[in-house]
Amino acid sequence: MNIEDKIFNRFSPEQNKLEKYGFNKNNNTFIIEKLFKDNLFKAVIQVNQNGSVVGKVFDMENNDEFLPLRIENNQGAFVGEIKTEYEIILKNIRDNCFSKNYFIYPQSNRITNLTIKKYNNRPEFLWDKFEGSGIFRNPDTKKWYLAILDVDRGKLQKNKKGIIEVANLKLAPEKIENLLKQKHFYPAYHMNKKYWISIILDESVSDIKIMELLEESHSYSLHK
User: Fold this and answer.
1) β-strands 41-47, 64-65: how paired?
2) What is the pTM of this model?
3) In this structure, which CATH number among 3.90.1150.30, 3.40.50.300, 3.40.50.150, 3.40.50.720 belongs to the domain 106-223?
4) Distance, CA of 4 to CA of 12 (rounded, Å)
5) φ, ψ for residue 16 (rounded to 5)?
6) Which one of 64, 128, 141, 212 is at 20 to 30 Å from 28 when CA atoms are compared?
7) In the prediction, which pLDDT does 68 show?
């Protein structure tokens, strides 16, 4: 994960704040330039339409990109200073122009916001080691009815890689059996597969369908 991804992970830009901060809009992209380190270096930071952040640092002496910044585990004191100052610029932009998301992917956050609105529950993040994994529990029974977990895609789809987020829902065993015969439904990751099912939150299953199943899961948490 590069410098920008680490700092802006689980954050989304707010257009009005970008413009107020000083970003210039070019089509659907926002760009800003910042001189630092006694004006010897320049950071050029771009926020794309999908919310991703791309940054480059240039050495003003020759106007070339300062590539040592991107070399992992091979940085001397001077490169470390440049990296620290660049990170300060990025964090200032994040804190002034971005809002915090609970999760990484758009569908994960939509489902979260719909759940908060419907049940007035917010996700709980119980594990320091798995800081991106959150659970929703029924406040009356204290039982979980939704878990959003970040996992390696290969855990659900063989021969595929990359971090994804899944929704785990608790349903009746006969409902689980029926869903597993359909596309885009998987045996529950890291939970009792008799009562739980996993859905990858990559738009393969509609929000409407997930919320229908979530309602069943919530009801199940009241009685089982």
Assistant:
1) unpaired
2) 0.70
3) 3.90.1150.30
4) 13
5) -65, -35
6) 64
7) 92
First-residue to last-residue Cα distance in the chain: 41
- Rg for the chain (alpha carbons), in Å? 22
Total count of residues recorded for the chain: 224
* CA separation for the pair 37, 204 (Å, rounded): 46
Question: 133 with 147: CB under 8 angstroms?
Answer: yes
Tell me which fold the domain 3-100 belongs to: Lp2179-like fold (3.30.1820)
Strands 41-47 and 29-36: antiparallel
* Tokens encoding 113: 């916001």
Within 8 A by CB and 6+ apart from 111, the residues are 146, 148, 167, 201, 207, 210, 211, 214
How is residue 174 written in tokens?
Answer: 């006969």
Q: How far apart are CA 158 and CA 163, in angstroms?
A: 13
Phi, psi of 25 (to 5 degrees): -95, 130
Instruction: Point out which residues pair with 33 in neighbouring strands.
Output: 44
Cα(36)–Cα(15) distance, integer angstroms: 24
Map out the domains of the chain as residue ranges: 3-100, 106-223
- Rounded-to-integer distance, Cα 186 and Cα 182, Å: 9
pLDDT along the chain (224 residues), means of 10: 89 93 94 97 95 95 93 82 96 95 91 93 86 89 93 86 92 94 92 94 95 94 73
Query: Among all chains, which residue has been given the structure tokens 């597993």?
Result: 180
